[in-house]
Amino acid sequence: MTLSRHLDWPFFEDTHREVDAEVARWIDERGERALEEDDSDRAVIEAVSDLGRSGFLRRFLPSPTDSGPRLDVRSICLIRENLAAHSGLADVAFAMQGLGSAPISLFGSEELQARYVQPIAAGAAIAAFAISEVGAGSDVAAVSTTAKEDGDRWIIDGEKTWISNAPIADVFVVFARTENGEGSRCLSAFVVPSTARGLHVERLNVSGPHPIGTVAFEDVSVPSDHLIGERGQGFKVAMATLGRFRPSVGAAALGFARRALAEALTWTDEREIAGRKLADYDMTRERLADMALTIDAGALLVYRAAWLLDCREGRHSRETSMAKLFATEGAQAVVDSAIQLLGARGLVAGSSLESLYREVRALRIYEGTSEVQKLLVARDLLAEQAEQGASLGRAQR
Fold first, then answer.
1. Collapsing DSSP states into helix, strand and coil, what is residue 5?
2. DSSP 181
3. Could you say which DSSP state residue 64 is in?
4. How much is the pLDDT for 31?
5. Catalytic center residues
6. Is 338 exposed, middle or buried (0-12, 13-18, 19+ CB in 10 A)?
7. What contacts 169, CB < 8 A, 6 or more positions away?
8. How far is CA 275 from the centre of its chain?
9. How far is residue 326's CA from residue 78's CA, in Å, rounded to a whole number?
10. Could you give the CA distance from residue 388 to residue 371 in angstroms, rounded to a whole number?
11. What is the pTM of this model?
């Protein structure tokens, strides 16, 4: 499962190779400790604490640049790929700390950053990103949760669902409608501590061993200074955060796929059928080659997108959507192929591949479904085509 081959690609610098080596050592030293599926809450809390002590969560503290604060997306992707290959829970523990803190670190005041981001980066507080609702998943502009100004406070009412870390979170970043009317310009983002009166969490059971729940807000009051950025800037905050983390979802998918390929390679080299190793059959070799091709193609797209976000100004929605789409769809196919090669062994409850099969499926849904990614790619292509047509028309006049 080594990443050394693609670490030589021109997308990376020496600092990224150092990050990869650091997380590999962390995984070797930790082993399987505290990552049992039967107690996901404890596993995530302990993993967050361990990741914080090891300094990995500080990767979510952006560096200042001339154009504003910037995250090192390539490092985040490398860490997620390594963690996912080791444990889906470890990956969730890492990723949600970033998703839940990035809106504050990128757009929040210095006071909010000091109060909330620093503990999250230290692994002393659990973060959650609360945007999805029953009627507002892929369509962020359809959020119906409201926040009304009342003197020096905001009063939040509504319900969020499918919120990772909800049952164990200390801090929620909540997106709510602050203006009358419809559309994205009416949204704002807030920091809401889990101890706020009127905040209630109900756990949801899903196929993967993750702490997820529904969060209800009943007259939840937060101070005015808990507004992230400016009023009406919530959609911008959400898109900027999701855009930066979208390639990292693809990176996690690569980790799952690499683990599945490694399992398949080991098994096919050991398993004998009719006096021949399974790996000696042409059909097996074709399937293994397809798995490796899918992984490398996904990695190229993921790290191209991460490099663009790190090194080039401007919008890169097409590249980030392509990366997330191809890597997650491809990882699903790779895991399925690995199970096909292992046969019944791959279906045993609690086995590595059975767990991977449950883990990888969610990646095609959260942070933008595969269908939404296709719409975004097509929209960008059509906009580019329209712009080229307009330029050609001006040149001909």
1. helix
2. S
3. P
4. 66
5. 367
6. buried
7. 100, 126, 127, 128, 163, 194, 201
8. 45
9. 17
10. 26
11. 0.92
Residues of the chain below pLDDT 50:
1, 33-35
Q: Fill in the amino acid letter for 362.
A: A
Residue with tokens 């019944």, as numbered in its chain = 344
Report yes or no: 251 and 81 within 8 Å, Cβ to Cβ.
yes
> Residue 304 has which token pair?
């191209």
Topology annotation, domain 128-232: Butyryl-CoA Dehydrogenase, subunit A; domain 2 (2.40.110)
List, in sequence order, every residue forming a beta bridge with 187; answer none if it has no partner. 177
Confidence at residue 393, expressed as pLDDT on a 0 to 100 scale: 66
d(Cα 116, Cα 121) in Å, to the nearest integer?
9
Q: Which residue has the tokens 């980790």?
A: 255
Q: Would you tell me how many other CB atoms lie within 10 Å of the CB of residue 177?
A: 22
Query: Tokens 């490796």 sit at which residue?
Result: 292
Range(s) for CATH 1.10.540.10 in the chain? 4-125
What is the model's pLDDT at position 315? 85
Quick one: fold of 235-384?
A: Butyryl-CoA Dehydrogenase, subunit A; domain 3 (1.20.140)
Using an 8 Å Cβ cutoff, are 176 and 192 in contact?
no
138's tokens: 């892929």
Residues of the chain with CATH 2.40.110.10: 128-232
Nearest CA to 12 among 271, 251, 283?
Answer: 251
Numbered ranges of CATH 1.20.140.10 in the chain? 235-384
Q: At the fourth CATH level, which superfamily is domain 4-125? A: Acyl-CoA dehydrogenase/oxidase, N-terminal domain (1.10.540.10)
DSSP 121-173: HTTSS-EEEE--BTTBSS-GGG---EEEEETTEEEEEEEEEEEETTTT-SEEE
Q: What is the pLDDT of residues 66-95, one digit of tens each?
A: 666 789 999 999 999 999 999 999 999 999
